[in-house]
Amino acid sequence: MVSFLNPIFLLGILGASIPIIIHLINKKKAVSYKFAAIDFLLETNKRISIKFKIRQLILLILRACLLMFLALSLAKPFITNSGGGAEEKNIPTSSVIIIDDSFSMQYSDRQESFFSSAKMAAKRIIDALKKEDEAAVITCSSPTFLVLPELEDDKKHLLNFVDQTQPGFTPTHIAPALDAAVEILSTARTAVKRIFLLTDMTRSGWDPQWFKSGHEKLRRTVSRVHILDVSEAKPLKNIALTDVEPQLTPMEKNTEVHIKVTIANFSPAPVKDLPVHVFLNGKKSTQGFFHIETNTSETKEFFLTAEKGKDHYGWVEIPGDNLSVDNKRYFTINASQTINVLLIDGDPKTNIYESETFYLEKALNPGREHLSSINSSLCSIHEINTITFADFNIVFLCNVETLPQEKIQELEKFVQEGGAVIFTLGNKIDPEYYNNALGALLPHRLHTTRTFSSASPLSGEQPLHLKVTESVHPVLRILSEAQINMLSLAKFYRVFYVDPTPLGNCKTICSFSNDTPALIERQVGRGKSVLFTASIDRDWTDFPVKSFFLPVMQQLCRYVTGSMSEEIPKEILVKHAWQYPCPYDMNVIEITNPEGTKTIIPPQFVDNEKYFVYKETQAPGIYAVTVNETLHPQFPAYFPVNVDATESNLAKIDQNEIRACMGGTQLSITTSRLEKESHVLLGEATKTLWGQLLLLTFCILFIESFISRK
Fold first, then answer.
1. Roughly how many angstroms between the first and final C-alpha of the chain, as a whole number?
2. Among residues 142, 294, 306, 615, which is most buried (max CB within 10 A)?
3. Dist CA 644 CA 629 (whole Å)
């Protein structure tokens, strides 16, 4: 079927009559003059006259065709081949229009972005629907759709929805969008069901795994899938910030920050002298230059100095290009206050390696080359009366036999007001004394010790080892998967058993292999009490010499003091949830997004733990956390949200791959550019003809010029 974009220019075909009229007007009958001398030329003149008439006739045809083809070219004809057949033109149809609103659709190599082109195409598809047709519009912004729209015939409502749609900051999710479209069309009563997908065809958005089963649903439910490539099948180039990773090195007064910046060059040409600027707290701090080969990435380190004891925010930025969304990446620095810890050694030894607190002290502050934000102070039981617990955040009682009564009362008050006490046991512990004197703080009553032997591999008295509970406690979440699997390597030859009935609001952080509690926490007033049912030195276990001992002890200190900023991921991706442990006495917090909108967040339970969960991470940027409109020491002041860098790779999926994924589904793919006056074709395969007609017009003009000069 041949159609025209500008049919008014077909009137120009009438201009083909102009050469004919001119030819007829100029055609005169020759006057004959008979004389004898000319007779011998008559035969030659007849041959010349025939050639002249043929030449004139050819020029007449060429000139008529010249005007006719020029008119046809200006009318812009094209051939349409409707894949749906005549039935789609004669009966009502149901359509779902999918608009790709991922951040790659903000790419622009001209005045308007791909997303603007997609919206324009969606509007023209809606305008072209007949009165009895129905349609729905959805986007690819989320992998899950909570509420699916219904098919409707109200064009005004559909157009308003398209107008209100804005490009997002998430990757493309083609498969869930197709899933949703199939579900919507499954309720349609019409025989012809179509899906229109308006996208830039970037490969990252297509999930081949889904099509292994999904193509059957498409084939059974959908009459035809029409894909419009708004990028016109052009190769796209992009330079993107793909990763920004801050690393902290605490110093005496400040914190040295190492910013590892990775930039990828997704383009066919190398990049030289690309300027990179690093900002801290809104001010440019440093800069550098990158040289990146084609289709590769490069990582460099930048060094900053941040004030210790404060939280900071920043970002890394590169110059704008066709896709500016991924040219800026945010980070935060949680340079938390120093945690002051008191270690009371109940069993000091002349050989310091045998002292109760030797390994614990080294774990909390390993040394100058690995400075920690945890500052430990050591004292013996004989020095206890000179110590004020309120000067510390945590008190460790390490195999302490007894405490003066006034210090016990001071310790209880210290914990009630927000401090933390951690009990570690040993051979000097009398269960009866601890239960009576420290029962107000202990998570469980102590029962008795149990010794395990490793003399025989067949013995039932094999050493115990650690294991995590069903839900991983925040203290252990800092461990990698490999480290969690290595917990079983720690051997325990003697442990304390406790009564099964807790003395308060208690939770088991981790257990032994025989399911007896190993590390237990209890909420006491505003503070916490923790009981470790073994020794913290090597008398009963080899736990202190394992690689995971250091991170567990440090994270335990951060947890009981509410300084868990290290547990927060270095960045959160757009539309991913931010969550943070809820302190005992906290009811709400406020989150302020980059646009300045504040949201009040109450706590909720996640895996039986109270957390603050914030899900409104719709845009990249810095989000601020406050309590009663002020910063709170138990929360990071900021957290960063960034785009998913997988979408920055704009490599395209091949049309043949899509056809293979679709299986037997009827499919058409359009890649032509949408001009302002263009016709949006409802899934019809098109072939434009005006280019060929213009070329033919120029050829005719050239031939006519050549013949007319002869």
1. 41
2. 306
3. 30
Contact 443, 504 (CB under 8 A): yes
Q: At what angle do helices 42-74 and 690-708 cross, to 10 degrees?
A: 160
Euclidean distance between CA atoms 466 and 491, whole angstroms: 8
Which CATH architecture describes the domain 340-560? 3-Layer(aba) Sandwich (3.40)
What is the spatial distance between Cα 684 and Cα 680, in angstroms, rounded to a whole number?
9
Distance CA 559, CA 553 (A): 10
The whole-angstrom separation of Cα 617 and Cα 575 is: 5
Which fold, 255-321?
Immunoglobulin-like (2.60.40)
Q: Which of 106, 235, 83 is nearest to 653 (CA)?
A: 235
The DSSP 8-state label assigned to residue 672 in this structure reads -
Tell me what pLDDT residue 591 has. 96
Exposed e or buried b for every residue in 165-177, given b needs 16+ CB within 10 A?
bebbbbbbbbbbb
Between the CA of residue 299 and those of 292, 305, 333, 455, what are the distances in Å? 10, 20, 20, 53
Residues 219 and 197: their CA atoms lie apart, in Å, by: 16
Whole-number pLDDT of residue 692:
78
Domain 575-642 class, CATH top level: mainly beta
> Of 132, 143, 47, which is closest to residue 644 (Cα–Cα)?
143
Cα separations in angstroms, 551 against 246, 342, 478, 483:
19, 18, 7, 10
Structure token digits, residue 448:
């008795």
Out of 71-75, 245-249, 413-417, least confident range: 71-75
Q: Pairing between strand 603-606 and 466-468?
A: unpaired
**Length of the chain as a residue count:** 710
Domain 92-235+655-682 belongs to what architecture? Answer: 3-Layer(aba) Sandwich (3.40)
Query: Residue 349 phi/psi, 5° resolution?
Result: -130, 160
CA 399 to CA 359: how far, in whole Å? 14
Please tell me the pTM assigned to this model: 0.70
Express each pLDDT in 344-389 by its tens digit: 999 888 888 889 999 999 998 886 445 567 889 999 998 999 999 9
Calculate the average pLDDT of the chain: 84
Residue type, 172: T
C-alpha to C-alpha distance for 64 and 73, rounded to whole angstroms: 14
CA-based nearest residue to 108, from 229, 272, 230: 230
The average pLDDT across 403-429 equals: 94
Round to whole Å and give the CA distance between 3 and 89.
15
Q: Flag the least confident range among 287-301, 376-390, 404-418, 471-485.
A: 471-485
Same fold, 255-321 and 340-560: no
